[in-house]
Request: fold
Amino acid sequence: MRKKILVSLWITLLFCAISFLFWQNELKYTLPTPVPKNYHAVAMGSTINLGKCWITNNKPVFIHFFNPDCPCSRFNIPHVSALIKKYGDQINFKIVVLNKHKDFTIAEIQKKFNADIPVYFDESMAVKCGVFSTPQAVIMDGSHRLYYRGNYNKTRYCTNADSNYAQMAIDSLLQQTKSPSFDALALRAYGCSLPKCTK
Reply:
C-alpha cells in the first residue's frame, strides 16, 4: 500500500513538473499580452515622430521590436531575417531592442539576424508606436504614418503562410492596394510584456 502511495505521489509530482514547464515555455505565450494600465493607444494612420536620427529616404519603415530574452522573439528571428532579405531594398528595416536587464551590442543583434541594419535601444519608440509586447512589427508608409502594428504570424515559429500578417501588410503597402483587414490574432499583442519583457 505504501509503495502504491509513493508511486502515485511521484507520478503526480512528475505531471505537475511537466505541466509547469509546458506553461512556462509554451502555453502562457499563446495568451494575449495584458494591456498595461497606463497604455496610450496609437491609432492606425497616425503620424509617428521618428526624430532626426531616424530620418529616412521616403521609403516605408519597418520596425522590429525585439527582446533577445523573449522566447517568442527568438523563435521568429528566421522569419524576420527572411523579410529583411526579401524586402530590404524597398523598405527601411530597423530593430529596436527592448531589454532592461542585459546590455547587447549592435553587432550582436545584427549577427542574430544576419543583417547589417540599424539597431536602436530606444524604449521611447515603443511608446510612440503603441507597442507593449515583443516581438511586434510596426510598418509605416513613406510619410511615417502608422500602417500596421501587430504580430508576424499566428504560430510562434511563423510557419503558417496563410497568416504571415506582417508580410501581407508589407505587400499591400508596396502594391498600394487597400490595407488588408486582419483578425484579432494579428492585431492583439502576444508575447513578452514590457517594460521588463516578461509574460
